[in-house]
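User: I'm new to structure prediction. If I give you an amino acid sequence, what do you actually give back? Let's try with this one:
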Amino acid sequence: MLSASVTNDTAFHPSTFILLGIPGMQDQHVWAAIPFCSMYILALVGNGTILYIIMTDRTLHEPMYLFLCLLSITDLILCSTTLPKMLTIFWLRSHIISYHGCLTQMFFVHTIFATESAVLLAMAFDRYVAICRPLHYTSILNATVIGKIGLACVVRGLLFVFPFVILIERLPFCGHHIIPHTYCEHMGIAKLACASIKPNTIYGLTVALSVTGMDVVLIATSYGLILRAVLRLPSKDAQFRAFSTCGAHICVILVFYVPAFFSFFTHRFGHQVPPHVHIVLANLYLLVPPVLNPLVYGINTKQIRLRIFGFFMGRR
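Assistant: Good question. You get back a string of structure tokens that encode the predicted 3D arrangement of the chain. For your 316 residues, that looks like this:
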């Protein structure tokens, strides 16, 4: 029994938690890990390549590419926060995680998610200024402003997520330590408590709707204004290219937000959702965007595509 491996539990905080993996699919864990591992490798290679090209080519030190660089960094941290532990659960049956290790993982998962949401908003604003205010682009988005935006993205995530740790620390667990998940997240831990988790639920909803929800609204507004400007372009070919680019961006944004909100609201209202569906989607929103972002924002960009081609041709 897994529970036999857990010792020295206290009545208030357990010394360790057990991550079950995907409930109902324990027999398929070995095979389920293969596509997750493959996507993780693609995310590492794709984002690592984007970072290398932008950092080594000074001609790409422009607002759009600097934001893309920040996005790649958050993608690498986001998937690396959960995937290595998940693979050890699936392949090595290493289900145990320490109490403080679990809280650390929870903190980084939610902080990096909030940071990436802010980065996507910044990139949408960058595209809005580039297309709708092209004459003022360099004056609005200079190096100082970009640095402040990047810092604000990180600080905002830290400030809004740190209370999650405090809210978890105040809860007694009465020996409950089995989490039916592949990683530690706020509500997954809180639901093990043997006390009221109403403050956790209220604060979680407030952050999701007022912070992440506001990001979604502002991103949608930015792309709405961009599409309105695109429709005014005289060239049909230019319109087609702009629609293709914006369409790809919107699809990736939806892949990032829809499973995240589904997972978030399932914890609170989705009692009829099968646990394995919930957990799989909760993993996909942390893994699929890091795989797709280098393709949509990076390789789909002509300047980066040319440099990737030149890099590999030069190695031959």
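You can read the tokens as a compact description of the fold. Here is one thing that stands out. The first strand starts at residue 16 and ends at 19.
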